[in-house]
Amino acid sequence: MISINLSVNCAPQRPGKKSSARPVSDDLKFMSMALALGRRGLGRTWPNPSVGCVIVAGGRVVGRGRTADGGRPHAEVIALQQAGSLARGATAYVTLEPCSHIGQTPPCSEALINAGIVRVVGALDDQDPRVNGTGFEQLRKAGIEVVTGLAQKEASEDHQGFVNRLTKKRPFLTLKMATSFDGRIGTASGDSQWITAPPARSLVHAMRARHDAVMVGGGTARKDNPTLTVRGLGIRHETVRIIVSRKLDLPPDSLLAQSVQSAPLWLCHGPDAPQERVKIWSDLGAKLISCRIKSQMIDISDMMEQLTQNGLTRVFCEGGGALAASLIESDSVDELIGFHAGLLIGAEGQPAIGALGVQDLSKAPRFALSDVKKIGPDIMHIWRRRP
To answer: Tens of pLDDT along 353-387?
Structure first.
């Protein structure tokens, strides 16, 4: 359900312009369209947020747009170009406050003003210090009616990666695990393909496509020899592949190495990684990111901050157990997605999460249940970080 938390600006309207205010039910309908548009760009617009914009005149949609792949043009510009002269006197619905600073392109707030928009309905304030309320303020000063806070909860979830990058200096991180009923990701011998059925595995590819990057640990990369690309969806999407391996002890003839030219490959390693391995992977075309060491392992906080500095906003981690434990211990996990299959492996199997050192149950990390669905013969459950 769309949330309603409206703040209405009652600034004088432009001379000769009638308010295009509509019932809240109409506002919700058009904001839902804008949110749906923005979600289509998740994983494609970093380091910018994937914003959706809908232009409405006389109750009819005359322009729509989302942030283009790569982050530009912005959603408002695309929607205004589509609307053309019909934008004059219309209402714009945007999922994030229009930018107000001059960067690589002119401000979207200025574009809305120049196009003759008389009303703007926004979902979420932009916490970028270059904007931070000034976008809406510029619109108000131009005599445009501004309504804010519509579908704020939904927009906050959609833009959480962008917000995390600004406020926490790290990407939004989803930790996905596919396990047996008893919480194992493989047998004692390492056999793990496949625990879940094709419908669940297909959905995972769709989830990869909605993130900027997919991440695994070095052990998983060595054992499974994955490509970590988005496949089987009929779309072309070059998700960044991230491997976390302190010593870069990864086979240079792996599928990851063979596909460097098909999709970006980033290797997060320690400063003590052998230089010959650094050179091998660099020559293959991988991006090397040297991270600090903490307790004999890569410092997750430093790694996440460096991923942010390189523009990432949303990361999808698929294990293994040691990396999952490190991410949880560093409080870097925002969302847990579990796929449970109806098979049993037993105590000798490999656990989904490595040791966390929890002695007191009251101090165990807890998440809030967000959704449960049946996916083919398996069950998917989604958990979110508690407020």
So the answer is: 999 999 999 889 999 999 999 999 999 999 999 87
Say yes or no to pLDDT of 101 above 90: no
Q: Prior bond to 251 cis, omega within 30?
A: no
Q: Which long-range contacts (CB under 8 A, 24 or more apart) does 201-205 make?
A: 202/232, 202/233, 203/375, 203/380, 204/176, 204/178, 204/318, 204/339, 205/230, 205/231, 205/232, 205/233
| Distance from C-alpha of 254 to C-alpha of 241, rounded to nearest angstrom | 14
Q: Is residue 88 a contact partner of residue 116, using CB atoms and an 8 Å limit?
A: yes
**Is residue 368 a contact partner of residue 383, using CB atoms and an 8 Å limit?**
yes
Token duo for residue 127: 């916490």
> What pLDDT digit, counting tens, does each position of 107-163 carry?
999 999 999 999 999 999 988 878 888 899 999 999 999 999 999 999 999 999 999
Rounded Cα gap, residues 165 and 17, in angstroms: 39
Please identify every residue annotated as catalytic: 76
pTM, entire model: 0.90
Tokens of residue 23, six digits: 């019932």
- Burial of 22: CB neighbours in 10 Å, binned 0-12, 13-18, 19+: middle
Preceding peptide of 281 cis, ω within 30°:
no
Residues 53-91: tens digit of each pLDDT: 999 999 999 999 999 999 999 999 999 999 999 999 999
d(CA 162, CA 156): 10
pLDDT band for 234, please (50, 70, 90 cuts).
Answer: confident
Beta bridge partners of 178: 339
Could you tell me which residues come within 8 angstroms of residue 359 by beta carbon, excluding any fewer than 6 positions away? none
Which residues of 329-377 form beta strands (DSSP E)?
335-340, 350-351, 367-375
218 neighbors 194 (Cβ within 8 angstroms):
no
C-alpha distances (whole Å) from 31 to each of 20, 75, 175, 320 are 15, 13, 29, 39
**CA–CA gap between residue 148 and residue 34 (Å, rounded):** 14
Q: Spell out a b/e string for 283-319, using b for 16 or more CB atoms within 10 Å of the CB, else e.
A: eeebebbbbeeeeebbbbbbbbbbbbebebbbbbbbb
- How far CA 342 is from CA of 177, 184, 192, 196, 257, in Å, comes to 14, 11, 14, 9, 34
Helix (H) or strand (E) segment spanning residue 114 = helix 108-115
